[in-house]
TrEMBL record:
Signal peptide residues on this chain, from the entry's feature table: 1-27
Protein name: Membrane-bound lytic murein transglycosylase B
Domain (Peptidoglycan binding-like): residue spans on this chain: 341-397
Domain Transglycosylase SLT: 34-322
InterPro entries, per database record: Lysozyme-like_dom_sf (IPR023346), MltB-like (IPR043426), MltB_2 (IPR011970), Peptidoglycan-bd-like (IPR002477), PGBD-like_sf (IPR036365), PGBDSf (IPR036366), SLT_2 (IPR031304)
Pfam families assigned to the protein according to its UniProt record, in alphabetical order: PG_binding_1 (PF01471), SLT_2 (PF13406)
Top-level taxonomic group: Bacteria
One term of GO molecular function: peptidoglycan lytic transglycosylase activity
Gene it is expressed from: mltB_3
E.C. designation(s): 4.2.2.-
């Protein structure tokens, strides 16, 4: 499930030195004939220091996979509002299974909490959402997926480095060009990590001398923890907390752009539904479906989720599920106003862009850019600026 949103961010630099190597003068970056592209890719790999025989072995039989491109263009699930998305992904079975696996792998979770300061609920939530605790890891040939997406000219700069990282894993004996399978976007294993991430953060948790993210929960969980720590996770700090908001809330102060010490929010009447507010930490108020829906206090660690996946609805759901796995109650869904359909959202995005607002693309998805633009235009029109787009707002524009 890490999919496109994670890949919209700059890739991690697992092969820093290799990335600095000069490219062949006529390296074909994307497009054109597929076989010519592969030949240029092989030349670049050799120029980066890979052995020619290993490169030929890695690329032998590579093919363009149309099903990968089809999956890349099919992202409708992220158009769902938070309440619906969360109810779809969080089931009693997933919650019970997570608690069972927490007990089964208690030693590795204790190690993660000791070494990285990351609560077990965080890793369990990723494990659940990415692969249903390892049960659904993807059936796409990883090598073919990466080469296909690098050949496609939508985001070649994101996928091309992953090919060379996968080559390094192959040379180490930890990747099979023919047999390694995973998600359509090239992620591998129980917590879905890209080859560069594996190079940088792969951890041999079970002590067998290899990093096996597909078959070893110990390897997968410790590697995921290392990656989160590398992305900036702050040890032993919270990430998200459901709250109730006071009457007379200034909705323009909600959203990730506004941060205050948590104690200041508390002084304004913000109250936790579970646990205690972390008064010393900066925090933002999130109302994913506007003033009528649920509300959350987002701490600094919440922003690390966006380094893993840039979909707001996915990130919020994963962070909330981590809370549930740690004992938090079911959120209060409230009574939010109905949102927009995908086509209505696109129409709204076009109208916002025409007014000079940066919505981050006309895709029908209520991402962070569109939310900020909605909040800005709500303020311009004198409406409650809760960043939740409704049909009334669309009609007003």
């Amino acid at each position: 499930m890490r999919l496109i949103a994670r890949l919209a961010a700059p890739c991690l630099t697992g092969m820093v030195l290799a990335a600095l190597a000069p490219l062949p003068a006529k390296a074909q970056q994307c497009g054109g004939g597929f076989q010519q592209f592969v030949a240029a890719l092989a030349d670049e790999a050799v120029a980066r220091g890979h052995d020619r025989q290993a490169v030929n072995g890695f690329l032998a039989g590579v093919r363009k996979d149309q099903s990968v491109l089809n999956a890349d263009r099919r992202q409708g699930v992220f158009q769902m509002p938070f309440v619906d998305f969360a109810r779809r992904l969080i089931s009693a079975n997933r919650l019970n299974r997570g608690q069972e696996l927490s007990r089964r792998h208690d030693a590795v979770f204790d190690r993660i909490e000791r070494e990285y300061g990351i609560d077990r609920g965080v890793l369990l939530a990723f494990w659940a959402f990415e692969t249903d605790y390892g049960a659904v890891q993807g059936d796409f040939n990883t090598r073919d997926a990466l080469v296909t997406l690098a050949h496609d000219c939508r985001r070649p700069h994101l996928f091309r480095p992953q090919i060379f990282a996968a080559m390094t894993l192959y040379e180490r004996g930890d990747f099979s060009p023919q047999r390694t399978k995973g998600a359509w976007a090239g992620e591998i294993g129980m917590v879905q990590m890209l080859p560069e991430d594996i190079l940088e953060h792969g951890t041999d948790g079970d002590g067998d001398g290899h990093v096996d993210l597909k078959g070893s929960p110990q390897d997968a969980l410790l590697s995921g923890a290392s990656m989160l720590a590398g992305l900036g996770w702050r040890a032993h700090e919270p990430w998200l907390q459901e709250v109730t908001l006071p009457e007379g809330m200034d909705w323009a102060e909600t959203g990730l752009r506004t941060k205050k010490p948590a104690r200041d929010w508390q002084a304004m009447g913000v109250r936790p539904r579970h646990g205690e507010i972390a008064g010393d930490l900066p925090a933002s108020i999130l109302v994913p479906q506007g003033r009528g829906g649920p509300a959350f206090l987002a701490y600094p660690n919440f922003r690390v989720y966006f380094e893993w996946n840039q979909s707001f609805v996915y990130v919020l759901t994963a962070a909330y599920f981590a809370n549930r796995l740690e004992g938090a109650p079911v959120f209060d869904a409230g009574q939010p106003e109905p949102g927009l359909s995908g086509e209505e959202m696109k129409a709204l995005q076009r109208k916002l862009a025409a007014r000079g607002h940066d919505v981050g693309g006309i895709d029908g998805i209520l991402g962070a850019g569109t939310r900020e633009a909605v909040q800005e235009v709500q303020q311009e029109l004198g409406l409650p600026a809760d960043a939740w787009p409704t049909r009334a707002l669309l009609d007003r524009l």
